[in-house]
Amino acid sequence: MAQLIEKALALNHARALTYHPKTNIYHLYTRPFYEVLGQVDNRNRRQREPLTIKNKLMGFDYVLTHPENRYLATEQEKVEYLTGALQLPQYVLPTKLYHSAESQTARYFVEKYPIFLPPDPPAGQPPVVSFCFVDEGMTTLSRFATFLAQYEQLFAALAQFRLIYVAAVPTLFEGARRAFGRLVNRSAEPANGMVQGGEIARLLDHFAARRLYEAKDLAGFDRDKLIRFRNEREQFSGAKYDAIYDRWKRVGDGAVLEISAPETKPPERMCGTFSTCLLEISYDLFGTLTAF
Q1: CA pair distance 92, 79, nearest whole angstrom
Q2: In this predicted model, what pLDDT tens digit does every residue of 157-180 receive, in sequence order?
Q3: The dihedral sign for the CA sequence 90, 91, 93, 98
């Protein structure tokens, strides 16, 4: 192994990052290795801040300590399983848009947390998908709350799921459990992740106005339309509507119509379980860094 590392460093295929106490982490970043994996644009090639490195190592440690699971290792595997084997619509997947001068690219599961299936699912039943959230040393639950908002539509679309909160200290375990409980309880309220029939026309009009407003094309706005737009912007705000709007910009009105629901549709409660995993591994090489 030492010879392999030395050769990778000599050929500029990897870089050594030194942390306390005189511990090296080796970052494999050269393009050909990722080309072999079919992931030439994998963002793991980029240099990262220490907390991000710690988060990724903790996720990897979870995988190493639970080798019996069937992991969906890549973005492509996750998308193909959820939209193929489980036939979920792609719009429910947690999405982040990356913009360039000429285009935008949708990426899924950008946190790259472990997602896996059980090694021996019951015969005749779809496997329960398990999702990990990795806490690398947070002092608040704000990032976990963002994670729940981003994954809410996917969790609601699954018949069953598991969420595992992974950390090296148990400080936020109970708070995270309560936050998950609020999410599950809220899912029984009407219109969770759906657009009700009476909203469709207003939402489509609002999206059209929002696109013009964001482009600073205000020629078609009179005083009444501007006031209405500002009022509706408060109503149609939040992660749910932002996700629908991003998809609407790509595919048109179908983004709203495909998730419309009759006013009489009864709400369904999420069927998910929450658990914690305490990694009994020392991460002292990162010192006392914390995240919010």
Answers
A1: 11
A2: 999 999 999 999 999 999 999 999
A3: positive
DSSP string of 178-229? HHHHHHHHHTTSTTTT-EEGGGHHHHHHHHHHHHHHHTT--TT--HHHHHHH
Q: Which amino acid is at 124?
A: G
End-to-end CA distance of the chain: 36
Among the residues of 72-141, which ranges form H helices?
75-80
Q: How many residues does the chain have?
A: 292
Q: Does residue 144 surpass a pLDDT of 70?
A: yes
| Residues pairing with 27 in the sheet | 15
Task: Record the tokens describing residue 244, joined without a space.
Answer: 């629908």
Residue 43's CB is within 10 A of a number of other CB atoms, namely: 11
Task: Answer whether 190's CB lies under 8 Å from 196's CB.
Answer: yes
CA 260 from centre of chain: 23
Q: What is the DSSP letter of 142?
A: H
- Alpha-carbon distances, residue 288 vs 22, 61, 137 (angstroms): 16, 19, 9
CA angle centred on 27, ends 25 and 30, rounded to 5°: 160
Distance CA 263, CA 96 (A): 30
